[in-house]
Amino acid sequence: MPRTTTRVPKPDWTDPDCPVARTLDLVGDRWSLLVIRDAMDGARSFTEFQRRTGIARNILTERLRKLTAYGLLAQRTAPSGRRQEYVLTDAGRDLFPIILTLRQWGERHAFAPGEAHSTLVDEHGTPVPDIVPTSADGNPLDTDTTHVQKIR
User: Fold this and answer.
1) In angstroms, what CA-CA distances link 12 with 15, 24, 27, 72, 132?
2) Cα 121 vs. chain centroid, distance in angstroms?
3) Please, are residues 41 and 88 in contact by the beta-carbon 8 Å criterion?
4) Which of left, alpha, beta for 106 (phi over 0: left; psi -120 to 50: alpha)?
5) Are 76 and 84 in contact (CB under 8 A)?
6) Mind listing the pLDDT tens digit for each residue in 97-144?
């Protein structure tokens, strides 16, 4: 896919003071997160993203443009020198815990007991342990032990 110079406009923030809302404004649609997931799994080319997701070409073009403009993906010349490829930036890699948490939630809640599904494993083939947020003193955190505090 040829590189374009069209820039995605600055988002019209749903809730400008909320980090969750801003994040969802940037990557909260189904296709964006699946593109990020596939980039984490090694997809680099337009064709690979399309094959893995089944996304329509026009929607994929727009998502790749948006994710590149917002700094989650970068374009570079492929090793062959003939095409451009997409790679995760540091900001894109920082979405790994989010993708992992979504995956683990899905493993627990989106499949019937015993239904086949994929699982994420480490370099030794061991399933990745569940993510559990903890406080500075190591205690588990949840909705009963946290609250939002505005910073100014």
Assistant:
1) 9, 12, 14, 18, 32
2) 18
3) no
4) alpha
5) yes
6) 999 999 999 999 999 999 999 999 999 999 999 999 999 999 999 999
